[in-house]
Amino acid sequence: MKQYDVVIIGAGAAGLMCAAQAGKRGRNVLVVDNGKKPGRKILISGGGRCNFTNYDVSAANFVCRNKHFPKSALAQYSQWDFFSMVNEYGIAWEEREHGQLFCIDSAKDIVEMLLKECDLPTVEHRYCCDVHDIEKTEDSFILKLDTDTVSCQSLVVATGGLSMPKLGATPLGYQIAEQFGLARIPTTAGLVPFTLHDKDKTAFADLSGIAIPVTITTESGVLFKENLLFTHRGLSGPVVLQVSSYWTPGEKVNVNLLPDLDVVETIKAMRDKHPAQSLKNSLARLLPKRLVEAMIERGDIHDKPLKQLNPRDITALGDYLHQWHIAPNGTEGYRTAEVTLGGVDTDELSSKTMETKKVPGLYFVGEVMDVSGWLGGYNFQWAWSSGWVAGQHV
Length: 394
Fold this sequence. Notes:
Ferredoxin--NADP reductase; FAD/NAD-bd_sf; FAD; 13 helices
């Protein structure tokens, strides 16, 4: 039975970062992964360009039952630290809106950088390798792999969540937590499109592909401002993905379709200037025509010449367009979700080291725990930060 100092289950962003840091400390490391190659989620992220971090990162950009938990890791290894590594490797990058940083060429650049960081005599990789059993002895962990059995002093679980099952997502990390008696926050899909009830889905089916800037507010008061995209299944776009991480099934969301405009004053000005113009044609100057037509067909808006609108009509129109309430039927689930909400309860972990409080030598990093970032590079930054921190202690 071969002995290692550290075994890391998962060759994703957090696992590779942890392996590199542990290897630099001279630790003998084995990274195992059930896939054919490392960094599968990195490679497809950001349309193949990888939104690897964000200029503005704080604990406020994460969904976690313990909102203070991410602070220590983010302070120990910040976005600037990872940004420096990217620059050291000469990777071309660009800034997009909201401080998002992307590779100019390919997400492969990030994976290759991490593998070079792991290119140490003490770091070994095994792919297409499943973990079948884990046993804890007094001073080590014994893992049964596909072909042999190995032991280690420190075991790092970097298995990710349940999102994007086609990339090999499994519940292994949660099963390991359960085996060792660790509490888990119920999991659900996050950063995921909404589906609509049949009536709404039919009404807006012809709008697929239309995108408009909006603000969306949940019933709990969480607000995001970004583009909303109509799809053949429901609603998507950055603003929907962001809000989905705070949405509870059964709730309505409040959509401000014209957040940068005072509808009442605008319609009054249009009426004064073009009193014979129809409301439909007037609104088509503010919103996509097909959306206006769909709202008229639903009976939410009644088309008539502007001169026939009384003050009460205009106020009601303003309320409707600034507070368009819609109740999603659900989400598209893990199949298209970018992250998994919930996971290993952070109260079970040290925020300074990622080690479990109950089981010395057992660590959890990345998405497998109850820390989920906003859209915009935050989940990768959590992977870098939590993986780096664990790598200093395993």
